[in-house]
Amino acid sequence: MTRPAPASRPDSGVLSLRIDLPSGRIGPGKIRLLEAIDREGSISAAGRALGMSYKRAWDLVDALNKLVGTPVVDASPGGYRGGGAMLTDAGRDLVADYRAIERAAQRAAGTRLAALLQRTRAAG
Known about the structure:
4 strands, 11% strand, mainly alpha, disordered N terminus, two-stranded antiparallel sheet, 124 residues, 4 helices, single chain, Arc Repressor Mutant, subunit A
């Protein structure tokens, strides 16, 4: 099970990371969706948890599948018994890589973020 990124606190600066690759963009929204699918066990439940439609959630999963070049979610159709979805190894790896890059960037930018936060507090 993946863990979501730490919640931002009003007293600290938080870095938001978008990664532009030749095949597309990965950002916090797509990663949160994958984490919600992992947690909720379905694309529709993940979409509801994040306040998005099933179509929007499915479109984002489809975009990630194309970006990675292999399925990031293994979905079984719904119906009478209901469907389900789980992350593939590629999906889990994508989330882990993104979160590791995010943590490294946060650490690298920590001093500058703290200085920026201090200056903006002084101005406000």
